[in-house]
């Protein structure tokens, strides 16, 4: 379908490079994201129909009983066009690698990292937007950013001892109070139109996350009042400002990279799949994303970025700042930030963050420890012989970067992952409603049934 979208896109005069659009100041107004989506959806619907007619009855290979018991590893079970994860190469967003994304997506004036607004546009449409389109999206999100008073009150009443992810999930759930989709559904909207209010809710969801994340940070860590959203600034700048880092250009650049690379990781990971699963019951985007956040809060998933920093700082306290490789080797435990359910090589999201660190903080001690661990841990995991992937994932690096810029509260780290992952989950929910994705309902079996089914089979 991606190639078909690209073909349709080549045929349309709307596809121009950012540079050529800027030259044509008299050019007609470029379409908004919603207008462009409305053009693409009928094409995609036809593509899905054709794929189902052509391939619908074909088998996708055997299912092993071990996959039923083994967390469905590798089981082909879902469709999501936005991103695909190759075990060796890592993630591609609509066919583009992270370095390609960094090169091709629009940047803020003076910035060198991609704007996550552009990544969202790419996830939703399969197209690289112009700078002007991305700037419009920044303005739109800034205009939608306010959260209802009662959601502020919910957050203000949370004890600071309640984990920031639990507070985040509570607030996102409560946003469902004003869901356009829930209201339209109650009023009997037709199935073909579901995607419109889902789009509006998804835009509201993403837009409101910085105010929620900022309020949690300031409440829990006593950092004073939130500044207002600046409609002239991009999403990452506003998020940084709400956290108290708006004047720190390096942190703002880090947020642009961070949100972009954490946004999506194909459809089967816990947060993305949870969002899709709950959305398949026609729960609105707020309820669906709150469920996804609860999955992201698990230590085997998003909480790993918190765990890595806890692990690193404990290790640093125990073996010192400039410890030898021998001392690091002796400090053995389960290594958070290493291993992956799909990847079998170093995560390109780790590499992108390492390159950012080499550029902005090459002499930082914690960054050096992260690099030292990279030279040692894969060997240890290979030697232990259990982990299928001994290489680092995205979480092995992110905490060290945040710490460098002064965001040292590790318990908060997964909230930033949660802001980012909304981009992917929201894009997927919009397309699931556009393509009429059905209620998810796989079949479960008992061990007794398995034994009966395979009784006389080899
Ligand atoms: C990501 C993760 C959950 C994938 O799980 P998985 O698909 O079951 O991984 P594997 O098939 O390679 O696991 C096989 C064995 O290796 C172990 N293993 C995997 N990664 C390990 C690590 N980083 N350190 C120590 N042991 C590890 C597993 O615990 C498992 O042991 P068991 O058979 O005794 O239960 C796992 O690698 C992990 O726990 N990593 C640390 C947490 C993390 O970084 N999560 C973020 C992922 S983006």
UniProtKB/TrEMBL annotation:
Q: Which GO terms describe its cellular component?
A: mitochondrial matrix
Name the residues annotated as catalytic in the UniProt entry: 301, 340, 395
Give the GO biological process terms. carbohydrate metabolic process; citrate metabolic process; tricarboxylic acid cycle
Tell me which UniProt keywords the record has, alphabetically: Transferase
Provide the GO MF annotations for this entry.
Answer: acyltransferase activity, acyl groups converted into alkyl on transfer
InterPro entries, per database record: Citrate_synth-like_lrg_a-sub, Citrate_synth-like_sm_a-sub, Citrate_synthase, Citrate_synthase_AS, Citrate_synthase_euk, Citrate_synthase_sf
Is DNA repair one of the keywords? no
Q: Name one Pfam family in it.
A: Citrate_synt
Q: Which PANTHER family match?
A: CITRATE SYNTHASE, CITRATE SYNTHASE, MITOCHONDRIAL
Similarity section: Belongs to the citrate synthase family.
Protein name, entry field = Citrate synthase
> Which source organism?
Russula ochroleuca
